[in-house]
Specification:
Helix 14 crosses helix 15 (519-534), helix 19 (587-634) runs parallel beside helix 21 (671-697) and helix 20 runs antiparallel to helix 21 (671-697). Helix content is 44%, strand content 14%. Strand 7 (160-164) and strand 8 form a beta hairpin. It is globular, with a radius of gyration of 27 Å. The chain folds into three domains: 30-184, Glutamine synthetase, N-terminal domain (Ubiquitin-like (UB roll), Roll); 193-585, 2-Layer Sandwich (Creatine Kinase, Chain A, domain 2), CATH 3.30.590.10; 597-713, Four Helix Bundle (Hemerythrin (Met), subunit A) (Up-down Bundle), CATH 1.20.120.1560. It has 717 residues and is an alpha+beta fold. The structure holds adenosine-5'-diphosphate (ADP) and magnesium ion (MG). Residues 219-221, 223, 290, 303-306, 350, 352-354, 362, 474-475, 477 line the site of adenosine-5'-diphosphate.
Length: 717
């Protein structure tokens, strides 16, 4: 059936009178639903015996282990609470290495032998589960014949209830481990890295004369970009359904050139969808704060208030899930792929990161004059040193096939990792290096050129949108994460490398303080040395420019362009030594991740390539041939001459892709070789087919073209 424009008309006719408008208005105090579905400290206080509640609170506040003898009491209270809220089942909710979350539902009810059933939930069931986990990726850690894997309750991330149209499910955040104790998930290493950083930071704080803190938490506040498109288009595009991105599609005549989308007013249907998403997330205790249009048409952003890394990472997984579920209620599909539309801005995730004490101190918060603030300088220096020492590992922590379309293209941060500090802060370090102490400029004001507007204090760190790792006033913003990605690995890496740098600086500081040198002098010396050794990683200019690529090369910074280039750093000897020292991941655990991610890369490219070949063979080529036949029937030879060679070109490129896709032509000796083949042979073959097909899209009669076009998907809402 030929496509007509009917779909567009239907898409545009969405009306607010469906379920959408009239949903709960969160600005009304009476409608506050925040954390209504969370087994939060407030609920725990009401429902738990006092001593149990106190023990659990300590665990939450200080990240200390919970006495498991208290588990029965917690389980009982959790079950009663959940069942009152309609839950019939519970699940250990975990994050295997697939990058998404996993759940296996168990009923609360069990038969008691007399033909009836009662609801039960014991401490043991709360603490430990044994999912039939043979099909999760493990990279050789656990052979399928010994398919045992355990999930273990993480009391530091509160349990929550997920509602569904037929009931509700109690979700208990858990870690996932092999029976030999190796981490099979993303949560365990993240928790271990938070411990490592806390230990190092507390020691450093003591040196700096700060003894009150009992725990240092790393914090994360992710800004998530995504696309929403009408679901009719989505389901007409097998490439979107199967691979998450469009494998074909000519660039529309209008992109974001007019800059008319960014921060523009939000269309009603989208806004309704956002509101309900926020409502659902609020119930789950996810502190969503901001929303706005992003640069590309139909692209948006959602960001929560920051939380500790573990909870923030769990909440981020929930956010992605809820966004996708709610979108469908509005006839929309939420696309989280890093590059759903070629030639159009892709989607990333900004990972705002800092460290804070349990006494409420942000360790990356400068004082009034930054260079007087010794504590800030110390921790900031540690971050610079860490990122310089492990730039390749940081890059590897965000590698994925989707990311390869963004990093290095002229939109997202480049594949070269560097740090932006802002002129003010960079000036402070330079002053320390040259020994010319100077006043920083707290009194800088931004004149707006009109007496009507008050002068604004200039933000300490001014903005550089092109930097992959930027200081933004009281935190660092790692901007190179992909939109579909779990936060866990990049934050695990950040925490661990910074823990190491803190320890190294502490040791130097201790040395420098021997004799009677005061803290300030000793610290200045340590900061100066570290800055001089690591300042090559600091760059304040345009990260997209060709000049920076050359300059970075001169500075010896790594430029790992593709996933196969980056992933080997997960098992580099520097990484292995670092992760062993801080007990975050063993060599075997690192190797398993390397293997899993490398294989995932190859498998994903393979799926894309087969989808592209099938689409080209069964939809695009037939449309082109029909069009050609119509031209031939018309007897207009000049038109035939225009189109016929392009049809042949398409066929030729398609044959090459099909050939590259043949299993027999793909090396199967190791995941690394397979990934390299996919990168070197299959991706270029896919690109060739696409190049011709996209030209063809602009030649073939519109009613014969089988796929919704960019100009439809991105603009009709
Ligand atoms: P931007 O200008 O980058 O869009 P936003 O204010 O929208 O800035 O986002 C800032 C993000 O940084 C928010 O998600 C916020 O929660 C997070 N953030 C703020 N302070 C911290 C902190 N101390 N640690 C981690 N994240 C933080
Ligand atoms: Mg940001």
């Amino acid at each position: 059936m030929p496509r007509t424009r009917q779909q567009n008309v239907t898409a545009a006719q969405w009306s607010a009178n469906g379920s959408a408008l009239g949903s709960t208005d969160l600005t009304q105090p009476a409608n506050q639903v925040f954390a209504a579905n969370v087994f939060s400290p407030a609920v725990q206080r009401r429902r738990l015996p006092k001593h149990v509640y106190k023990a659990l609170q300590k665990t939450l506040e200080r990240g200390e282990a919970l006495d498991t003898s208290l588990a029965d009491a917690v389980a009982q209270a959790m079950k009663d609470w959940a069942m009152e809220r309609g839950a019939t089942h519970y699940t250990h909710w975990f994050q295997p290495l697939t990058g998404s979350t996993a759940e296996k539902h168990d009923s609360f009810y069990g038969p008691v032998g007399d033909g009836t059933a009662i609801a039960e939930f014991s401490g043991k069931e709360l603490i430990q589960g044994e999912p039939d986990a043979s099909s999760f990726p493990t990279g050789g850690i656990r052979a399928t014949f010994e398919a045992r894997g355990y999930t273990a309750w993480d009391p530091t991330s509160p349990a929550f209830i997920l509602e569904n149209p037929n009931g509700a499910l109690l979700c208990i955040p858990t870690a996932f481990t092999s029976w030999t104790g190796e981490a099979l998930d993303h949560k365990i290493p993240l928790l271990r890295s938070m411990d490592a950083l806390s230990g190092a930071a507390l020691k450093a704080l003591a040196l700096l004369g700060e003894h009150d803190a009992r725990r240092v938490f790393t914090t994360v506040g992710p800004e998530q970009e995504y696309f929403l498109i009408d679901e009719q288009y989505y389901f007409e595009r097998p490439d979107l359904v199967i691979t998450g991105r469009t494998l074909f599609g000519a660039k529309p005549p209008k992109g974001h050139e007019l800059d008319d989308h960014y921060f523009g007013s939000i269309p009603e249907r989208i806004l309704a969808c956002m509101l309900e998403t926020e409502l659902e997330l609020a119930k789950l205790g996810v502190p969503v704060k901001t929303r706005h249009n992003e640069v590309a048409p139909n692209q948006f952003e959602i960001a929560p208030i920051f939380e500790n890394s573990n909870v923030g990472s769990d909440h981020q997984q929930l956010t992605m899930q809820v966004m996708q579920n709610v979108a469908r209620k509005y006839g929309l599909v939420c696309l989280l792929h890093e590059k759903p539309f070629a030639g159009v801005n892709g989607s990333g995730k900004h990972n705002n990161w800092s460290m804070g004490t349990d006494t409420g101190d942000n360790l990356l918060e400068p004082g009034d004059t930054p260079h007087e603030n010794l504590q800030f300088l110390f921790f900031c220096t540690a971050v610079i040193q860490a990122v310089n020492a492990h730039q390749e590992l940081l890059r590897a922590s965000i590698a994925s096939p989707g990311q390869d379309h963004r990093l290095g293209a002229n939109e997202a941060p480049p594949a070269i990792i560097s740090i932006f500090l802002g002129t003010e802060l960079e000036g402070v370090f330079t002053a320390i290096e040259t020994g010319k102490a100077r006043e920083s400029k707290p009194g800088s004001f931004l004149g707006l050129g009109t007496p009507v507007l008050p002068p604004l204090p200039m933000h300490g760190g001014d903005r550089n949108r092109t930097s992959p790792f930027a200081f933004t006033g009281n935190k660092f913003e790692f901007r190179a994460l992909g939109s579909s990605m779990s936060l866990a690995l990049p934050n695990t890496v950040l925490n661990t490398i910074v823990a190491e740098a803190i320890d190294e600086l502490s040791e130097k500081l201790q040395g420098a303080m021997k004799g009677s040198t005061g803290l300030e002098k000793a610290l200045t010396k340590v900061v100066k040395e570290s800055w001089t050794a690591n300042k090559r990683i600091v760059f304040g200019g345009d990260n997209y420019s060709e000049a920076w690529h050359e300059e970075a090369d001169r500075r010896g910074l790594a430029n790992l362009r593709s996933t196969p280039d980056a992933l080997p750093w997960l098992v580099d000897k520097t990484t292995v030594a670092l992760f062993r020292k801080y007990k975050v991941l063993s060599k075997r655990e690192l190797e398993s991740r390397h293997e899993v991610f490398t294989e995932q890369y190859a498998v994903k490219i393979n799926i894309e390539a087969e989808t592209a070949a099938t689409l080209a063979r069964t939809q695009i080529l037939p449309a082109a041939v029909r069009h050609l036949n119509e031209l031939k029937a018309s007897g207009l030879a000049e038109l035939v001459e225009e189109v016929e060679p392009v049809v042949r070109e398409l066929h030729f490129a398609l044959r090459a892709l099909e050939d590259a896709n043949l299993k027999d032509n793909q090396p199967d000796s190791s995941p690394t070789k397979w990934a390299a083949y996919m990168h070197d042979r299959v991706i270029p073959a896919m690109d060739d087919v696409r190049e011709v097909a996209d030209r063809m899209e602009k030649l073939v009669a519109d009613d014969l073209w089988p796929l919704p076009k960019y100009s439809e998907m991105l603009f009709i809402k």
